[in-house]
Amino acid sequence: MATAAGKHRKHLEARVMLVACITTELLRQTSPSHSGSFGKVGMKLYHLKRNQSFCPTVNLDKLWTLVSEQTRVNAAKNKTGNAPIIDVV
């Protein structure tokens, strides 16, 4: 008498998937950290480029550190009230 995993199948992938499903179920039951996902999950990204929109934050008290010391001195001497423009984008 043949078992479920030993049956003759036209497509071998069916047996592989069956064994994989059984193994995945055993892993899911025994391991709490196992995700439980099986098969293809999510979109396929061929050339994934991370951090394309990386934009660190700058506090206002650290804003003058982006300007050189000479520019800071000149802005302090300037009595017209104009401050240097700092492009932080």
Can you put this structure into words, describing what you see?
The protein has a domain at 1-37. 31% of the residues lie in helices and 0% in strands. The protein is mainly alpha-helical and 89 residues long. It is built from two helices and no strands. The protein has helices at 12-30, 69-77. The longest helix is centred in the N-terminal third of the chain and has 19 residues, at 12-30.
- Give the integer mean of the pLDDT values: 76
Low-confidence stretches: none
Overall 3D form: rod-shaped
The helicity comes to: 25-40%
* Radius of gyration computed on alpha carbons: 31 Å
> Count of DSSP E strands?
0
Can you count the helices?
2
Q: What is the ordering of alpha helices and beta strands? A: HH
How many angstroms does the end-to-end distance come to?
72 Å
Estimate what percentage of residues fall within beta strands: under 5%
Largest sheet, strands/sense/barrel: none
Q: What structural category characterises the helix and strand content? A: mainly alpha
InterPro entries: Ribosomal_uL15/eL18_sf (IPR036227)
Keywords: Hydroxylation, Ribonucleoprotein, Ribosomal protein
Family: Belongs to the universal ribosomal protein uL15 family.
Protein name: Large ribosomal subunit protein uL15
Compact summary:
Helices cover 31% and strands 0% of the residues. It is built from two helices and no strands. It has a domain of 37 residues.
Write the layout of secondary structure elements.
Elements: H1 12-30, H2 69-77
Search tags:
89 residues; mainly alpha; 2 helices; 0% strand
